[in-house]
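for the writeup, i need someone to sanity check this before i put it in the appendix. the sequnce is what the collaborator sent (i think, or maybe the updated version? ugh). structure was predicted straight from it, no edits. if anything looks off just tell me and ill rerun, i have time this weekend
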Amino acid sequence: MNTRDTLVTDLNVLADFKPRVPESYQGAEFLMLGNLMPSLQISVISQLRERPKLIVLDTMNFWMETAMKDLASVLTMIDVLLINDSEARQLSGEFGLVKAARKILTMGPRFLIIKKGEHGALLFYNEHVFVAPALPLEEVFDPTGAGDTFAGGFIGHLARTGDISFDNMKTAIIVGSAMASFCVEKFGPQRLKEITREEVDDRLRQFVQLVNFDIDLK
């Protein structure tokens, strides 16, 4: 379940969608641009009278194939780009993810997150790289929506703490990964509707234990 084949993409109701930013949203410190047409993402940014402290953008292979000019434009307007490993290779033209990340960071975003499904995620910033694990799960019922759940957990943590430093983004990635691990346990959003704060905290502790170890370099 770590790979996908896109057979067809239908925009359906989104084909004529024209989002309007309400007055109450003006002055928002954080903006999460979902995976929509790059022209719509540009439209949302342009409607904000004051630039948010952090703009995060999600995109996909379909827009790279059909709207690359607009995508290239919106990449110059954002701070964080969220894509998966195959999309990083497609966008950059590089197979190695480190080379791909270096090239993508020259396109505009300051931070790049490359999602790798069951293999975790990578965070790139300048010369810094952070590797986040994925929680090993015996049963995966439905991976649909895991990427969106990851994004929600990531931006939710940043918005809650108000800290957009590289170190806090590392924590945000772990929070996003923890939330995504819940998403895949049942079909649709069902598991996310059931979880408690205690379960989230326990899962975060499991992630810490995955990477916490002592080493003697003597």
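The two ends are 41 Å apart (CA to CA). Residues 166-183 form the longest helix (18 residues).
thx in advance!!
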